[in-house]
Specification:
- The protein is of the alpha+beta class.
- The chain has one domain: Aminopeptidase, CATH 3.40.630.30.
- It has helices at residues 6-16, 23-29, 72-86, 101-109; strands at residues 33-39, 42-52, 55-63, 91-97, 113-122, 127-135.
- Strands 1-2-3-4-6-5 form a 6-stranded mixed sheet, sandwiched between helices.
- A hairpin with a 2-residue loop joins strand 2 and strand 3.
- It is globular and about 40 Å long.
- Bound molecules: coenzyme A.
Length: 141
């Protein structure tokens, strides 16, 4: 993710979330482990990661409305997993709204497992977060 991508990333963020990240949140992480997915030169999705030693947290992942349900999110997540394996990251963590069936299904398909629940973690609307984790070692079995 580069500075010039932020405008498009922010547009997608506003489009897909009821409580979008403010621009400053992207500004603080774009120089780190954040990536955009392009289709025909247009930003159609992004992922923001936090990587510390052998652990990665997926802080945000989204695909614009028009491109959802076409395998783009899976492509992006597979790329993240491969990248983390190349960097010897073992565990990948994320939080997801209980009601977010598309995202939960995607994560389960990729091998993520539920490891916990954060009560009332989200607002607008108030909702619990499911904590999920992927052990990259399991993918080698
Ligand atoms: C969650 C998200 C990233 C998935 O990306 P996507 O490109 O729409 O998903 P894909 O087309 O790659 O689908 C991959 C898998 O996800 C699951 N999935 C996707 N859409 C689904 C839906 N509407 N209902 C149920 N499962 C769904 C399925 O398991 C699917 O695999 P399948 O096609 O073999 O059934 C995307 O919907 C999105 O950006 N949502 C809004 C932001 C968001 O909720 N981010 C996650 C926050 S934790």
């Amino acid at each position: 993710m580069q500075e010039e991508d932020l405008e498009y990333v922010q547009q997608i963020e506003q489009e897909v979330y009821s409580n979008p990240w403010p621009l400053v949140a992207f500004e603080s992480c774009y120089a780190e482990d954040s990536y955009v997915l392009f289709l025909e030169g247009k930003v159609i999705g992004y992922v923001c990661l936090s990587v510390v030693l052998d652990e990665c947290s997926i802080m945000n992942i989204a695909i614009c409305h028009a491109q959802q349900g076409k395998g783009r999110g899976e492509l992006l997540l597979r790329r993240v997993i491969t990248l983390m394996q190349e960097r010897s990251v073992r565990y990948i963590y994320l939080d997801v709204r209980v009601s977010n069936v598309p995202a939960r299904s995607l994560y389960e398909k990729m091998g993520f497992r539920k490891i916990g629940l954060r009560k009332n973690y989200y607002n607008n609307p108030d909702e619990d977060a499911i904590v999920m984790a992927l052990d990259c070692e399991d993918l080698k079995k």
